[in-house]
Every structure is written in structure tokens, then in C-alpha cells.
Amino acid sequence: MRPDRMVEALLFASEAPLSAADLARVDESLNEDLVEEIIAGLREEYESTDRAFGIVEIAGGYQILTRPEYAFVLDRFETVPTTARLSAAALETLAIIAYRQPVGRAEVEEIRGVSAGGVLKTLAERNLIEVVARGEGLGRPLLYGTTRFFLEHFGFRTLAELPRSDELDVILADRTADA
Predict the structure, then answer these.
(1) Are the beta carbons of 17 and 63 closer than 8 angstroms?
(2) Cβ–Cβ < 8 Å for 60, 158
(3) 102 preceded by cis ω (within 30°)?
(4) How many other β-carbons are positioned within 10 Å of the β-carbon of residue 104?
(5) Tens of each residue's pLDDT in the chain, 179 residues
(6) DSSP track, 4-65
(7) Structural domain tally of the chain?
(8) By residue range, what is the domain housing residue 165?
(9) Which residues touch 74 (CB under 8 Å, ≥6 apart)?
(10) Residue 98 included in any domain
(11) Backbone phi, psi, residue 83, to 5°
(12) Is residue 24 located within the same domain as residue 98?
């Protein structure tokens, strides 16, 4: 069996990103370096044949995803799974957590100016945040951070790819202009 097709089959079937180490475990003939070469070759093959999908590096691994320009095609069919949209309050809370983690509920509420209990619960239920520690203050409050699924969901390899705070005004202005 061809190693490149084994790697391709695993990436195709997986619902979550797989690391090179994960992929190398499928066969004793594979190692992480060879998997990286195979992935580069598959990316080149998909690009040169103008496929509607590609291999994307996200959340510390690789995943086969539909290219963004084909999103409108997927939106037309009910059988294609979609993700539930987040409310403005949930996105705001998630941004606070992503940039200030680990952060407690009280700090989130202080920044937002409103109660955050329900939103924190929703974000945790959607596996976008999790309790990562306990604070040192009175009652040892829970501290929240983002999850690996957060990275997958938003297409980041690491948290370092989050836009810097000085870039946010430009990004938000561009999105407002497009709307």
C-alpha cells in the first residue's frame, strides 16, 4: 500500500486535525519527516489539479478542508453539516478569553460590563473554552482558556496567529466596509 494514500485516507476520514506524529503511527514505514514530505506532495498535487479542497495546517495538525471559494456551494445543501453561529455576546466573551487567558468570570464581566455566566456556559458546551486553572483570590475562582477545538474552529495553528490588538481596528474596519 502506498504511504501517500494511507496518509491521504487518514486525513480524509478524520473529523479533527492529525499531527505528523499521529499520521506516522499508521505504518512502521512512516516517520514524521516522511509524513511532512507526503503532505507537501499532496498539497502540491491538489493545487496543481485545482481541487476544491486542500490540506490545511490548523491546531497543531493537518486536515483536509474545502477551499473557501467553494463555501457558497456547500451552503446550498441541507445535508452538509454547518456550525451554529455565535452571538455577538459570545464572540465578545470568546475574544476576551482568547487574548487574556487564563481569565476568570469576574474579569470577563468587568470588561464586558454585564453578567457572563450564560455565555461562558454556552462557550464551554460548544467546546470553545475550558477551565484551565483556579485563581489565587477569594474562593479560588475558575480561570478559563481556549481549547484546541477553538483553534480548529477558527482555523488557527496556534494562539500566536491571533491578530495583534493594533491590527484589530483595521480588520474590523475592513469587515464593516464589506458588509
Answers:
(1) yes
(2) yes
(3) yes
(4) 19
(5) 899 999 999 999 998 899 999 999 989 999 999 999 999 999 999 999 999 999 999 888 999 998 989 888 877 777 766 667 788 889 999 999 999 999 999 999 999 899 999 999 999 999 999 999 998 888 899 999 999 989 988 888 889 988 877 766 554 455 445 54
(6) HHHHHHHHHH-SS-B-HHHHHTT-TT--HHHHHHHHHHHHHHHHHTT-SEEEEEETTEEEEE
(7) 2
(8) 88-178
(9) 66, 80
(10) yes
(11) -100, 145
(12) no
Q: What whole-number distance in Å separates Cα of residue 125 and Cα of residue 149?
A: 12
Q: Please provide the size of the chain in residues.
A: 179
Residues 151 and 119 in one domain: yes
Residue indicated by cell numbers 475562582: 141
Domain harbouring 148, CATH code: 1.10.10.10
DSSP 77: -
Give the cell for residue 1: 500500500
Query: Phi and psi for 157 in degrees, rounded to 5?
Result: -75, -45
Task: Return the pLDDT at 168.
Answer: 60
pTM of the model: 0.63
Q: Which residues of 58-80 are buried (b: 16+ CB within 10 A; e: fewer)?
A: bbbbbbbeeeeeeeeeeeeeeee
170: Cβ–Cβ under 8 A, 6 or more apart, which residues? none
